[in-house]
């Protein structure tokens, strides 16, 4: 009745792109490079959901070779993955994600990210958690070359016992 999935994604920071995380445009001189809007957080969440369903990954469902996904909002991709999740009889019990970035400071944007994700996942905001951390200037995130994100999701079979709700 329950399924767990983990997702991870990384994108390079470049000039000339908007920085979109969790569906929120964040003021920053650099943005993430990718075929879509390159929202690394939502991509990790999509991969976590697809992993929980044993349904491959975001690249399989939305290949970068398909021009239909060029510049597309990752919120749209997340909504499509949620539709697949619902079609397979599951709903999000809870979701926890971490964005790893040396800069910019993300705390002022977390609440909006949570609201966007909860809305796309069709759940209350109490079921979604987003955190941000740095790497203390270590690794590619610390050198400000890119941003990564991890996500873990617990899916519940629709109609299953609701004993895990807070």
Automatic annotation (TrEMBL):
Pfam families: YgbB. SUPFAM superfamilies: IpsF-like. It catalyses: 4-CDP-2-C-methyl-D-erythritol 2-phosphate = 2-C-methyl-D-erythritol 2,4-cyclic diphosphate + CMP. 4-CDP-2-C-methyl-D-erythritol 2-phosphate binds at residues 9-11, 35-36, 57-59, 62-66, 133-136, 140, 143. Pathway: Isoprenoid biosynthesis; isopentenyl diphosphate biosynthesis via DXP pathway; isopentenyl diphosphate from 1-deoxy-D-xylulose 5-phosphate: step 4/6. It is an enzyme of class 4 (lyase). GO terms for molecular function: 2-C-methyl-D-erythritol 2,4-cyclodiphosphate synthase activity; metal ion binding. Binds 1 divalent metal cation per subunit. Transmembrane segments: none annotated. Its EC number is 4.6.1.12. The record marks 35, 134 as: Transition state stabilizer. It comes from the Bacteria. Homotrimer. This is 2-C-methyl-D-erythritol 2,4-cyclodiphosphate synthase. It comes from Desulfuromonas soudanensis. The gene is ispF.
